[in-house]
Design brief:
The protein is mainly alpha-helical and 429 residues long. The chain is 68% helix and 3% strand. Helix 3 runs antiparallel to helix 5, helix 3 crosses helix 12 and helix 13 runs antiparallel to helix 15. The longest helix has 49 residues. Belongs to the nucleobase:cation symporter-2 (NCS2) (TC 2.A.40) family. One of its GO terms (cellular component) is plasma membrane. InterPro entries: NCS2 (IPR006043), Xan_ur_permease (IPR006042).
Length: 429
């Protein structure tokens, strides 16, 4: 729970900094998203579509349910544009409200090329250094930990079962491949899971992989169109900040929802939750504000330690894991009994549901034909093969122990019955 919850809570400062330039615009964006996604989600907008053979037909679309973020951002963006051309917002950079102007980055739009295709080595020959590798390695570890929480939060938000080990391995592996490609193409940062998209899934109720794939293709095309990409730079920061309040809040609520099966009347659980959340926020904040306080004599190790201790999800998640597994508590109190019952009752159903994490059908059929793929940790059959083998071994051990216990118990019952018969005979005599 702390790992997923801290994904959203740790980003509240980002949302605050974006919104600080014009709080009225940020609150307007937040209010519009709230109205469209919650109050107007069941309102259908009538429209006409053309079908071959039947002509124009009237239908309805749930626009407010499907596109609450886009509609809210467009309205706030248009409102900021009107207030900009009418000089309602100040032109001086040091005055409050300047950040809401839409003409701050117009020079970026003017200087951007209409078409630009990136290629490897466009910024020169890549260089590798030990200090750079160690620093990036620490950031990669922190990113992996955050991705774990993102995967589980996204699965819960999409109504899918928790991702199995092969799916997580594939996700982390693809992040590594894309980071390598990003470095080869000269990108300024690596690629990782994006927590804001989880909140967008919760608001729009759209979790289809087809939608994500089409969106990725559109983003690749727009990345080559410089003018179109630069157009989105003109969106004022307060508008983005208002959207962040919604999406970050949705991510945090996913983590809190994991407490639904935990006893919140227990002081033990309250201690674990409160301590892990508070320290997960406090220690990384102190690390960020005091970058030179960690000094072990090795600059590379200092960078790695600072990156790890500066990750909210790592600090809070590790502390919560340690306290929950070391402090005494019953399975019912910790919520473990609920998950055990669910695992026993829905084992067959879950095996069917986990097929959503399989590879595309054309690849999955070929993988199923080659049995050696079950030994690869990123193939779908890996987890099911080893887990079933372990279950069979445990079942055999339990059967043997149960048989021994049954024999001993029967022998004990026979001895008890014979003793009772002897006592009864003695009393009769």
């Amino acid at each position: 729970m702390p790992t997923i919850t801290l994904i959203g809570l740790s980003l509240f400062e980002v949302a605050t900094n974006y919104s600080a330039g014009q709080w009225y615009i940020a609150l307007l964006t937040t209010a519009l998203i709230c109205i469209f996604s919650q109050y107007m989600k069941n309102i259908d907008v009538p429209c006409f579509i053309y079908k071959k053979g039947s002509g124009c037909t009237k239908t309805s679309l749930s626009l407010f349910k499907m596109f609450p973020l886009l509609i809210a951002i467009f309205i706030s963006w248009l409102f900021c544009y009107i207030l900009t051309i009418t000089d309602v917002f100040p032109k001086e950079k040091d005055k409050w409200g300047y950040a809401a102007r839409t003409d701050i980055y117009t020079d970026v739009l003017e200087k951007s090329a209409w078409f630009r295709f990136p290629y490897p080595g466009q910024w020169g020959v890549p260089s590798v250094s030990a200090a750079g590798v160690m620093g990036i390695f620490a950031g990669v570890l922190a990113s992996i930990i955050q991705s774990f929480g993102d995967y589980y939060a996204c699965a819960w938000m999409a109504g899918a079962p928790p991702p199995p080990v092969p799916a997580i391995n594939r996700g982390i592996g693809m992040e590594g491949i894309t980071c390598f490609l990003a470095g080869a193409w000269g990108a300024a940062s690596g690629n990782s899971s994006y927590s804001e998209n989880i909140g967008a899934i919760g608001v729009t109720k759209t979790a289809s992989r087809r939608v994500i794939q089409v969106g990725a293709f559109v983003m690749i095309i727009h990345g080559c169109l410089g003018k179109f990409g630069a157009l989105f730079v003109t969106i004022p920061q307060p508008v983005i900040g208002g959207m962040f309040f919604i999406v970050f809040g949705m991510v945090s609520s996913v983590g809190i929802s994991n407490l639904r099966n935990v006893s919140l009347d227990s002081s033990r659980n309250l201690f674990v939750i409160g301590t892990s959340l508070l320290l997960g926020l406090a220690l990384p904040m102190w690390i960020q504000k005091n970058p030179g306080m960690i000094n072990t004599g090795s600059s590379e190790f200092d960078q790695m330690l600072s990156a790890l201790l500066g990750t909210n999800m790592l600090v809070g998640g590790f502390l919560g894991f340690f306290l929950d597994n070391t402090l005494p508590g019953t399975d019912e109190e910790r919520g473990m009994s609920y998950w055990k019952r669910m695992r026993e009752q829905t084992s067959s159903i879950k095996s069917q549901e986990l097929k959503v994490y399989n590879l595309p059908a054309c690849f999955q059929r070929q993988i199923d034909k080659v049995h050696c793929f079950i030994f690869l940790p990123f193939c779908p059959g890996y987890n099911s093969y080893f887990s079933s083998a372990i279950k069979r071994i445990c079942k055999c051990c339990k059967t043997k122990k149960g048989a021994k216990f049954t024999v001993n118990e029967n022998k004990g019952n026979d001895n008890l019955e014979s003793n009772l018969k002897n006592v009864q005979l003695k009393e009769i005599i």
